[in-house]
Amino acid sequence: MSKSRFVLDKFAKLIEQGLLSYKDLSDEILNILKSKRDEIIFRMKIVSKEEFEILNKRVDSLEKKLNEIKKKKSSKKTKRAKRS
Q1: Measured between alpha carbons, how far is 18 from 39 in angstroms, rounded to an integer?
Q2: DSSP 45
Q3: Cα–Cα dist 39/69, whole Å
Q4: Are 9 and 32 within 8 A, CB to CB?
Q5: Can you tell me the distance from the alpha carbon of 1 to that of 34, in angstroms, rounded to the nearest whole number?
Q6: Residue ranges per domain, the chain?
Q7: Which of the residues 24, 48, 58, 60 could staple to 19 if both were Cys, CB 3.0 to 4.6 A apart?
Q8: Which of 12-21, 28-37, 52-61 comes out lowest in average pLDDT?
């Protein structure tokens, strides 16, 4: 119950601050979820903090590369064949 209350409080705070734009709201939700994920991993002590930071940087760089590839792929236009 307290965890769901935390999330609802965060959403209420966002709305109060006037972040009504979909892009801003989605970015803020992703940041909240990432911070909670990081907190859970630290509590579980699966990996050391240094290892986690290194892995986190690697994942971020892979996400950036994936987004760049998606942008390039979507921006390419198909070429039509010439009729003879």
Answers
A1: 27
A2: T
A3: 30
A4: no
A5: 20
A6: 2-74
A7: 24
A8: 12-21
- Cβ(41)–Cβ(52) below 8 Å: yes
Mean pLDDT of 64-68: 92
Q: Which residue has the tokens 């979820």?
A: 33
- 77 burial via Cβ count (<10 Å: 0-12, 13-18, 19+): exposed
The residues, ordered by sequence, that sit 6+ positions from 55 with a Cβ below 8 Å of its Cβ are 47
User: Interior CA angle at 52 toward 50 and 54, to 5°?
Assistant: 70
Which sign does the torsion angle of CA 71, 72, 75, 78 carry?
Answer: negative
pLDDT at 44: 79
pTM of the entire structure? 0.40
Encoded amino acid at 9, one letter: D
